[in-house]
């Protein structure tokens, strides 16, 4: 974590995909052989109450503890592949580029944020992703995990004190499986969309693919009140029918995951692409006469100098309707918001860092359409 930050806090989240071979599809896109884990936030939550989100949360000092180096390989970046330098005109997301040694931690940010995502997944969903020894190694088999009662006791301790996650790993003679997590994206809460008390988060999104659902998945009845597994197109259908609600970044990522009906394809793409890195995206809100547009970097209307802190008090608004703005425009990277459960992603720019643009579900729910 970075104590010098004043306007937001650092966080990590995990897109956890698990194989579901032979499961009948519920989507016009055809069969998907995997689902992703979604957790419903408590209605009392200070940020996105009631939303379905990927597991994750705030980075804690314990995630950056130098003691982790005693459980992880001594090689550079603890055995993680080195991310390539950014392309011309690009930049490494500040979340990852920050010199952590200057902040008192010898643990690279790429390692610490993966530990954060794994710890939060254990706290919120009871899923413990470890490898025996110092790693990298095959995942720890479920039969080698402690009994459910003991695991539940550890889960409560970790929820109360993040440093207990390291103690748990040491107790089991294991390491957190940071090597299974692939860097996917980085989202910063927009100015004006902060939660209670002005909460904003600079969040690292990681992707992890498992052959099957892990056992003993359960919510904690505190931060999380329900667990849902859903394929990307099914999640979007549930969202459109107002069965569930999730924030625009999750909607965007589900649309992007619709490119991959196969878990094997997703695993291959994410593991190879992760070494390209990613840039930080902070949506900028444009208020129109009949809705809102979240502008993303690369869109023709995205500000040259975005107001990252909110100190400039910049407000983008127009009397035009969304439809008129779309007809007038030509270079899109945006999320159109008509109401809470009526979102649409429009992208016709080239994806950077060898990533892929989202597929888009039409607003009338009748078909799927590529917006490349």
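^ structure tokens above, recovered residues below v
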């Amino acid at each position: 974590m970075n104590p010098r930050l004043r306007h937001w806090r650092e966080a990590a989240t995990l897109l956890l995909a698990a194989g579901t071979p032979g499961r009948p599809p519920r989507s016009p896109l055809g069969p998907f052989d995997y689902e992703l884990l979604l957790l419903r936030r408590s209605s009392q939550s200070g940020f996105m109450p009631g939303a379905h989100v990927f597991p994750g949360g705030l980075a804690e000092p314990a995630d950056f503890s130098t003691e982790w180096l005693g459980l992880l390989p001594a090689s550079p970046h603890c055995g993680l592949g080195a991310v390539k330098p950014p392309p011309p005109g690009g930049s490494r997301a500040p979340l990852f580029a920050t010199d952590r040694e200057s902040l008192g931690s010898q643990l690279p940010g790429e390692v610490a944020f993966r530990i954060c995502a794994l710890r939060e997944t254990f706290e919120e969903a009871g899923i413990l992703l470890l490898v025996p020894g110092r790693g990298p190694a095959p995942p720890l088999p479920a039969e080698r995990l402690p009994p459910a009662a003991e695991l539940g006791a550890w889960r409560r301790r970790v929820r109360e004190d993040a440093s207990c996650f390291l103690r748990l790993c040491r107790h089991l003679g294991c390491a957190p499986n940071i090597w299974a997590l692939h860097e996917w994206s980085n989202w910063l809460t927009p100015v004006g969309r902060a939660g209670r008390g002005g909460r904003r988060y600079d969040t690292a999104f990681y992707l992890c693919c498992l052959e099957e659902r892990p056992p003993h998945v359960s919510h904690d009845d505190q931060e999380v009140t329900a667990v849902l597994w859903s394929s990307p197109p099914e999640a979007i259908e549930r969202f459109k029918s107002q069965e569930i609600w999730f924030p625009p970044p999750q909607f965007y990522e589900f649309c992007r995951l619709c490119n991959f009906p196969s878990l094997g394809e997703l695993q291959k793409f994410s593991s190879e692409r992760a070494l390209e890195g990613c840039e930080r995206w902070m949506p900028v809100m444009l208020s129109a006469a009949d809705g809102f547009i979240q502008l993303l970097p690369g869109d023709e209307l995205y500000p040259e100098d975005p107001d990252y802190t909110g100190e400039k008090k910049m407000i983008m608004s127009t009397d035009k309707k969304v439809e008129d703005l779309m007809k007038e425009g030509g270079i899109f990277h945006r999320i159109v918001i008509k109401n809470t459960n009526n979102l649409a992603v429009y992208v016709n720019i080239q994806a950077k860092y060898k990533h892929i643009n989202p597929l888009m579900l039409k607003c009338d729910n009748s078909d799927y359409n590529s917006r490349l």
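The chain has eight helices and 17 strands.
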